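Each field is set out underneath.
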Amino acid sequence: MTSFPAAALRVRDESLPEYDRLLHLRECTLRCAPYGFRATWHHLIVNAGIPQRLEDDPAALSRAVDELSAARAIWQRHAAAFAAERRAAKARGQRAVPLRDRWQQHGIFGIAFCPDAMRHPGDPLPVIVGRLIDVYGSGALVDDECPLCGEPLRKKICARCGIQPHGRDGGPRLTAASRTRYLWREIWRRTPMTGFSPPMLAALRNARRLVAEVPASEPGRRAFVDIVPGRTDADRAAEREGWVRSDPARTYQVQHWEYDEQLLDTFDYDVGATCIATMSAQNHVDLLSLLADWGLAPMRFDYPWNTADPR
């Protein structure tokens, strides 16, 4: 088993084959994964721009390990200070770890665990780790709020940045996280993802609405794009009979809504709500083309209950 520093040296060794360097980057990620392994890996792939053909940009591997090493260095400095405090406390006879410090016992792995590998904060890892250390260390953490963005937690998970503050076992298993199971091969291979994941595609064919949060036009507002599948008399008849009809030839309506952020979790969410745009797609191909025109990747869409969408 290789240590993090040894694996990091091999990632930076340009004399090694690119794929070997990628495997050593995986070893580094296994030992330092603030979001959990899969979400941290996806973050490094995206932020460092690691291409599908590694020979197209070998320097991307060095960029990824540099970001990971910087986050690890921040954590190690904090861990060393915490260890010194604990030795002094034990010398005074205080052997029990105070409740406010117990989050540090689990190390950096999963400090901001993200159950969905493709939904995680976009800021560099050193920024995220430093911010979390400050929040947790100050004791200002609120149980029902995200420590990073202050967003109210839904099912113990932040709908905005995707983290689960209480770790892997701190909340229920997300239905949306199941798409990681389908997509891990594509994430590992760095395959360009131009379509919906299998669970999301099945949801659309079953006439279930999907949602993606997008940037709002101004502070104090939250914006979402909804994909609303068309329903027919055959769907309503199936619903009365107690089953769900799948139809690959559905029509779709795509809606862009903005809401007042302060009213998002109230029954008055529609007060001040604005429909920015509405467009129709006659089939799945037209839907993908429409999303491309709007600059939205299909992989961004999720079930409504896993987002902050008020509807």
Remarks:
- The beta strands are 153-154, 157-158, 210-214, 221-229, 252-260, 274-281.
- Confidence is low (pLDDT under 50) at residues 170-176.
- The chain has nine helices and six strands.
